[in-house]
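Listing S7. Sequence submitted for prediction.
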Amino acid sequence: MKNPYHDQLQEDEVSIGRRGLLVASGIFALILVFPWLVTLVRDRGGVDPVVWSGSTIRNLKAMEKWVEGLPVFERARDVDQAVLTKIANVGNRKVVLGQDGWLFYRPDLDAVVGKGPFYNEPPSVSRERVVDQWRPPLPEILDFAAHLKKRNIELVFVPVPTKPMVCNSALGLEGEAIANKDWDDLKSRLEEAGVRVVDLLPLLASMPEEERFLKQDTHWTPAAMERAAARVAEMMPSFSQIEVVGEVREVKRGSKGDLARMLVPDEMGLFEEETVSLRVVEGGPRINNDESTIVVLGDSFVNVYEDPELGFAGNGERESLSAGFSSHLARHLGVSIQTIAINGGGATEVRKNFARLGGNSITRRRVVVWVLSARDVLLPELPARRAGIRWEPVEYPVIVRFEEAVPEEKKERAIRVTATLKERTRLGDPKETPYDTAIYSAVFEAVEGDAIKEYYVFLWGFRKREMEPTAFFSPGQRYELTLVPLQEYPEAMRATQLDDFSRFDLTPFFATDASEMK
């Protein structure tokens, strides 16, 4: 008997020919082999070439991040995040949303409620594999203090409380200042070793909560920064009787905070600019005097109102304002100072740059004021690694008892070299860092006569969270470089410095121009 639905079934039947089957099979096969094909492509666009070197697993992870960074996926992710933030008040891996528009950096929260700097991670097979040994902060701080003491230099240590320590009403807490359980113990151990510690927690807690930190940023307000500079000056008794020098001029500046930028791109318009009143110091002592007996080492808490790259000091321009911590400290002290402040580099990179001053220069100093986020000294190993905090040992130059002037004709100026890239530092994802701008280190080799000379060079990694062309330089390739001493390029000196090498035997240069040799 004929099936009554036979004709209907014939009409609904879909037939795929041999060619269609071949195309479908080819697409399926391409999906399977795509990860391995990508690893064979030399020019990978947005992927850091150094990250791609190594094992297949690391290649696959890098490929995954590259795919996520493709415009279509990146835009979708940003839209999803904006919707979640606006409707459900949801943050991301780096940013926690509080009440009334307050934003918080997750590692800052970990620094308050975490296990503290004296906690040792137990061995475990489930832990992330790392190649470098973790070094806790306290021994490195004490080692630095000991080296300074040998040269009759006093260390004034200024850990800046994190935002959740002094601005926690928006997190549903009582609003009183809180600290990590090891905060007092850490201070005591430093003071027992002869380090002068300036505890800013009571000072900031005495201010109205809305005047302590910016709502959308990880940094303190101009008012809190000024009061901190005045307090540090009070803690330096040998200078306490000197009158305040310089006048101040108030200017308004606006910017979206670094936390807002870590959450969604500026162009999505989810957050309004936050406006601050800066007091610009005019006619005050210099803050970049390399002959000064006082050196300020710091991170972005020192730079935030001086560095245009951080937003609040530039007003859309690349000018630099004398409105930051160093300017106000110098004004209260009445003497010039030298500033070495690196965004994201308050733990290790500033010590490296201090060591590069050389024995003769260091011996002239009398006080080192070290300002950095308390996050750097309170986080235990795993959250510190995730936040990109490193406490590395630093070699300091030997003590020199005489002055040897460098002839002007022997000072290194801009040079042009053609060299092969030998090795370079890895770059992370700029969209997951708290800083917009970073430079990275590399070692180049150039043939000069019968010898091979090494050059220790820093290059742009990313600016405004966008990779620069120099970020994709590959080991083994030849490049033409225009080099200037790193110390003579202030914009690069303030940027986050990613450095795996610490070549104290070589002069650090910055590449103001670089191109691949064809």
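Caption to Listing S7: primary sequence and predicted structure tokens for the chain studied. Confidence is low (pLDDT under 50) at residues 38-57, 400-411. Residues 198 and 232 are 7 Å apart (CA to CA).
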